[in-house]
Amino acid sequence: MGIKQRQERDREAVRRAILDAARELFMSEGYGNVSIRKIAERVEYSPAALYSYFPSKDDIFFALAEDGFQLLHDAPSRGAVDACLPLERIRATFARLYQFSLDHPEHFSLMFVDRTVPRIGQEYERFTLARQMKAQLVSQVQQCIDAGLFPHGTPALVASRLLAASLVGVALMRLSDRLAPGENGEDLALDVVDVVIAGLQSGIRLRSHSLTDPCPLEAPRAATGLHPSEEPHP
Amino acid sequence: MGIKQRQERDREAVRRAILDAARELFMSEGYGNVSIRKIAERVEYSPAALYSYFPSKDDIFFALAEDGFQLLHDAPSRGAVDACLPLERIRATFARLYQFSLDHPEHFSLMFVDRTVPRIGQEYERFTLARQMKAQLVSQVQQCIDAGLFPHGTPALVASRLLAASLVGVALMRLSDRLAPGENGEDLALDVVDVVIAGLQSGIRLRSHSLTDPCPLEAPRAATGLHPSEEPHP
DNA sequence: TTAGTAAACTGAACACTGTTCACATAGACG
DNA sequence: CGTCTATGTGAACAGTGTTCAGTTTACTAA
Description:
The first copy, chain A, is mainly α.
């Protein structure tokens, strides 16, 4: 009677094998050099077979990004994420995020940078783990406010966005080879977090409205100005 | 005797036509959907002809990025870049950069984000205008230090990098559709600059060494951790 | 055991892509 | 005029994502 279950298990195993092959090819071959045919060869299926597991190549990337959020979620922290001091927790959170961009550059790129896989940008709200982690960060910032470490009235959501954007900016510079030879990306990353924290503590007036986090977190549908990337084939 | 000159002029005109066609296709068709064949059709040449003007498709992108730096260099400022107050000049510089990311997202992406055109990351030092503008920014920061607006001893180069990385991070979030529906990218961009400025003014100790700007500015060869993107064809 | 059936998988094709190369052609020079 | 060189072409090569008519496989019902 466990036949259906076993079938589903087998199917899930093949699905995982496809994702693993795709991930390994990302590492060794680089980003755009991974093709359906190469993945298929690695898992010893025909290219056409992959289309019964994923509707398109984009969806493989999408699933990999989902994997990435899981990886980040499970990543060990070098600092004290559970520290008593809420400011140290925030520092540790972003140190972990930068370390993640070092350890898993291809995942990081898919999760926070990439524009070539339309679904990732457009269906961002489907990454429930991303929403969860973002909520956690906002609550960490809120605890800083409650503890008087940030001025009363600081919009927690905006503050967390400023921190995240700054760190992603530094990580991106390193990922895209825009650092000068002597520049240390990690130092820059830690510095930018400290500087933004200090700036928030200064209590300057912010333009951004807090928007009190309407839907649990992010959501899609932000006009880009850039063409919504390539549809696979018209 | 002006034959050689006229020939060179003609050649340059075709080169420009190719770049214009490529740029226009970026706007209308999106990023990865522009092909050599489409560019060739638009300029009414055969695909093979383009290869006597550019050694590869990557080099067309590279030339477009060069164009981008020229565009940014010539962009009008909404704020007062020539203002007397050096802090206002910095704010205006980054407001202009963010506006540029709105007006020319594809150029911005090529210049500061893209990893899929290997030459742009790897030969960054060849963008002389980028070096020039960066030097200008560093000198603006230095003027703030000299005027006592930033603490004495602030490393101007590091400060300018922190500012730039933060703003690029916000611009990237908008470009890659990572903003929540209610979020205002422009407000975030202006806020992040103000917050980083305030943080720098707080005088916290920075980890990054100043490195006194060894070669005039940036330079290539920073280990990425990510595969150096796809070579066109092996 | 056998017939039927539904899912899984394949081979071949389609319409693309970047790039190369033997050939044609047009314009400048002696 | 012929020669020669630069410029441009058509066709091809090897690759891409994707689709689909069939075949194979594995399970179900008679």
